[in-house]
Amino acid sequence: MLSVQKVTKRFGGLTAVQGVSLEVNKGEIVGLIGPNGAGKSTFFNILTGIYKPNEGAILFEGKPIHTQKPFRIAKQGISRTFQNIRLLKEESVLENVKVGMFGQTRSGLWSALLGLTQAKKEEEMVTEKSMQILELVGLKGYEGEQAGSLSYGNQRRVEIARALVSNPKLLLLDEPIAGMNAHEIEEMGELISAIRTKNGTTVILIEHNVGMVVGLCDRIAVLDHGEKIADDKPDAIIANPAVIEAYIGKDEEAEVGLLAAH
């Protein structure tokens, strides 16, 4: 589904991502891990068109997307969440989710203001789809609540719902369990698994919680200082000396620490 080919991104004299390649197959959950500053969020920004790579190419379903604008990439079926929650906190949960359908509808401002039939039908469709997604993420009954009044974990769910409502083929999740307690982390893992099984969505997941990633993902890629140092199945990743060194340091206690996270 996704083929990233030797992508490099520089900011002046700083190379944030260096020659990274990654293949993602339809239906996979792929983890992207690495220490702080490894280039993970920059990599997501490249995939979604926020940054244009200096070198390399990105193919989505065989078509190049690395020169396209973010809204065109989104229309092709790639959606994302962000490391910091970005909700319209004064608006309802339902309105926040409906925003995710903005690029998928055809009616313009005047059609909506004049109450034309097409605009009404689209509004009904968007509302129905949004309610379906809210049920999927476990927020049925919260649609009328103000988004900012929800718990931190549920705000994360709203953000994921907004990303899912446009029926993306590929969902990019940037640290979806950051700041959560153990119970919320377990529930989020179950939700991400359900997104794949019930919605048929392929997922790439950035996360610092190695144990959660190992238990959830089919495959894990590891970035360190902007370079990919490993790409393998979870069990091989947690035993990889280069990964252990990148995370905790080169000693026996480091290895014990990484394995304990699993």
Automatic annotation (TrEMBL):
SUPFAM superfamilies the record matches: P-loop containing nucleoside triphosphate hydrolases (SSF52540)
Native organism: Brevibacillus nitrificans
Keywords: ATP-binding, Nucleotide-binding, Transport
GO molecular function: ATP binding; ATP hydrolysis activity; L-isoleucine transmembrane transporter activity; L-phenylalanine transmembrane transporter activity; L-valine transmembrane transporter activity
Gene3D superfamilies: P-loop containing nucleotide triphosphate hydrolases
Highest taxon of source: Bacteria
Protein name: ABC transporter ATP-binding protein
A Pfam family this chain is assigned to: BCA_ABC_TP_C
GO biological process, one term: L-isoleucine import across plasma membrane
Limits of the ABC transporter domain: 2-250
GO cellular component terms given for this protein: plasma membrane
